[in-house]
Amino acid sequence: MPIYNKLVRDHIPQVIAKDGKTCTTRILGDKEYIQELKKKSQEELTEYLQAADDSSALEELADLLEILHALAKCHGADVEEVERIRQRKAEERGGFAEKIFLIEVKDA
């Protein structure tokens, strides 16, 4: 019997039951929830970095986006607020579309 001890998506217990299995779960408190979301974001980022093709990469990016939605809510916002902040920062500092790789900065 595998032991996971990790945050899972909301419907996973039903998926497990549909497969004729049982599972043990508990509901996390707010602080532990944020901690587990952070762990989950690292797990999904690692999976994205290891993705072998575009399709797998997009699946992992979708998982990361789901985590971003949840984390935004934990911090009293929604993903639209995160997007507004992203847009403001892009206007002030730019995005990454130009693929600029900074080598070094020297004092004048």
Automatic annotation (TrEMBL):
<dbReference type="InterPro" id="IPR038735">
    <property type="entry name" value="MSMEG_1276-like_NTP-PPase_dom"/>
</dbReference>
<dbReference type="Pfam" id="PF01503">
    <property type="entry name" value="PRA-PH"/>
</dbReference>
<dbReference type="InterPro" id="IPR021130">
    <property type="entry name" value="PRib-ATP_PPHydrolase-like"/>
</dbReference>
<protein>
    <submittedName>
        <fullName>Nucleoside triphosphate pyrophosphohydrolase</fullName>
    </submittedName>
</protein>
